[in-house]
């Protein structure tokens, strides 16, 4: 039979040799192979510890970033950064009217014009379209472009206001590329959507007659062409769509 001897097993850790214990060893076998099993187990344990530590760091970093984002978006309205590249909101020239827009006060994201507007104060001589949108809305950009094209076709015969709804204030900058001539107001909590009593879905278009009464609140197939917007605008002039 082959003889046995003892093998002291260990690994180097930080420049120091750490022993795991004394194991029986077959005479003639290499000490490295005799100690391979406890060494492999040690390395596996170390890898598991490293993976757990990395996971903890990742979770902590993600939680910190999320908390920072939530804290940032909870800044007071007066802390909003208004952008000179965004069109100015229209100054309301009327007052509350029966059957008019809800009494909702919103900040404007354009640097020029009023800092805030109260929707119930809009009672303009021209008809008005109010478009509720958000950066996460798949069809909103197409609808905004169609509304802007309709506004240009009308030679500014219709007012347009867009409302960035339940979104982050920085998303207002998207309008610079989508439809730079459309003003943007900001409804962080989606309060207008609540007061319109429609489904919590975007886009939404509110059609306002001259004088300030609400003719229609449209929420359905997105308007992607000037013709579709014009068809919606038939409520401006009786049963005839705007030309």
From TrEMBL:
Residues 95-241 form the Thioredoxin domain. SUPFAM superfamilies: Thioredoxin-like. It comes from the Bacteria. Keywords: Membrane, Transmembrane, Transmembrane helix. InterPro entries: AhpC/TSA, Thioredoxin-like_sf, Thioredoxin_domain, Thioredoxin_ResA/DsbE_sf. One of its GO terms (molecular function) is oxidoreductase activity. The chain crosses the membrane at residues 49-66. This is Thioredoxin domain-containing protein.
């Amino acid at each position: 039979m082959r003889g046995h001897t003892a093998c002291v097993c260990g690994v180097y850790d930080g420049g120091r040799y750490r022993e795991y214990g004394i194991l029986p060893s077959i005479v003639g076998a290499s000490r490295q192979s005799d100690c391979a099993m406890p060494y492999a187990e040690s390395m596996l344990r170390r890898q598991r510890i490293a993976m757990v530590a990395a996971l903890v760091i990742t979770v902590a970093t993600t939680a910190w970033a999320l908390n920072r984002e939530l804290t940032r978006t909870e800044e007071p309205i007066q802390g909003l950064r208004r952008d000179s590249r965004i069109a100015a909101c229209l100054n309301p020239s009327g007052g509350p009217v029966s059957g008019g827009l809800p009494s909702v006060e919103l900040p404007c994201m354009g640097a020029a014009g009023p800092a805030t507007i109260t929707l119930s104060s809009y009672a303009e001589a021209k008809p008005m379209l109010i478009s509720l949108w958000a950066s996460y809305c798949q069809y909103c950009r197409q609808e905004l472009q169609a509304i802007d094209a309709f506004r240009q076709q009308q030679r500014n015969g219709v007012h347009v206001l867009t409302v960035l709804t339940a979104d982050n204030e920085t998303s207002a900058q998207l309008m610079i590329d989508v439809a730079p001539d459309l003003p943007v107001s900001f409804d962080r909590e989606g309060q207008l959507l609540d007061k319109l009593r429609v489904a919590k879905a975007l886009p939404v278009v509110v059609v306002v007659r001259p004088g300030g009464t609400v003719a229609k609140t449209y929420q359905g197939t997105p308007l992607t062409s000037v013709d579709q917007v014009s068809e919606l605008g038939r409520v401006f002039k009786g049963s005839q769509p705007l030309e």
